[in-house]
Specification:
By secondary structure, this protein is α/β, with parallel strands linked by helices. Helices cover about 50% and strands about 15% of the residues. The chain binds ligand DLZ. InterPro entries: LS, LS/RS, LS/RS_sf.
């Protein structure tokens, strides 16, 4: 039968331990969301990403995913550059004996996010809401990735029925069930690693 999952990544990613990955998830359809987030975390960790380097945030619904993803990336970049300044201040102090402009209490270095997985579950109802939210959410997430240069993994299920959503979250009775969150974790590691080497 035709396999509707990605072929495995061509290589393993030995540098995964140095990656920092964000997960932003919506809170609608929580049963599926919880399973998908768990699946993503488990494949990130299996690939070697450290649990302390996985940053998790939630938003009300999928419509909020693009803005949250964008702000999370921006905040991580600001934090990383302020940490770099603090560390530079400490180095100046250590080598010259003079207090650097930022003082000696440098925080532990935190790098900016190398990828974000944006997770939502949209289930078609009887109005046009589903179409509008799905469309704007997916376009918004694509835009965030292109505008920031940070890989954004599309972790949004657009299901026509609740059964479809459960099946793609690895839940329910279907023999075809598969947790797509696991694929998203692997995609995040691959894209984060590759785009870092293309810098
Ligand atoms: C309003 C709404 C509806 C009808 N359905 C879903 C859904 O299936 N999945 C989801 O993640 N969010 C849904 N939302 C909420 C919107 O995404 C959004 O949170 C609100 O419209 C507020 O902006």
């Amino acid at each position: 039968m035709h396999e509707r999952r990605p072929a495995p990544a061509p290589t393993s990613f030995p540098d995964a331990a140095s990656l920092r990955v964000g997960i932003v998830h919506a809170r609608w359809n929580t049963e599926c969301i919880d399973a998908l987030v768990k699946g993503a975390i488990s494949s990130l960790e299996k690939a070697g990403v450290k649990s302390e380097n996985i940053v998790i945030e939630s938003v009300p619904g999928s419509f909020e995913l693009p803005i949250a993803t964008s702000r999370l990336i921006a905040a991580s970049q600001i934090q990383a550059s302020s940490n770099a300044n603090d560390l530079m201040g400490s180095l100046i102090e250590a080598t010259t004996g003079n207090a650097g402009t930022t003082g000696s209490d440098a925080k532990a270095s935190k790098q900016s996010l190398d990828a974000v997985i944006s997770i939502g579950v949209l289930i078609k109802g009887s109005t046009m809401h589903f179409e509008y939210i799905s469309d704007s959410c997916c376009h918004g997430l694509m835009r965030v990735g292109l505008d920031t240069g940070v890989p954004v993994i599309l972790g949004v299920l657009t299901a026509l029925t609740e059964e479809q959503a459960l099946e793609r979250s690895g839940l329910g009775q279907s023999s075809k069930k598969h947790n797509h969150g696991e694929d998203w974790g692997t995609a995040a590691v691959e894209m984060a690693t590759k785009t870092k080497t293309w810098a």
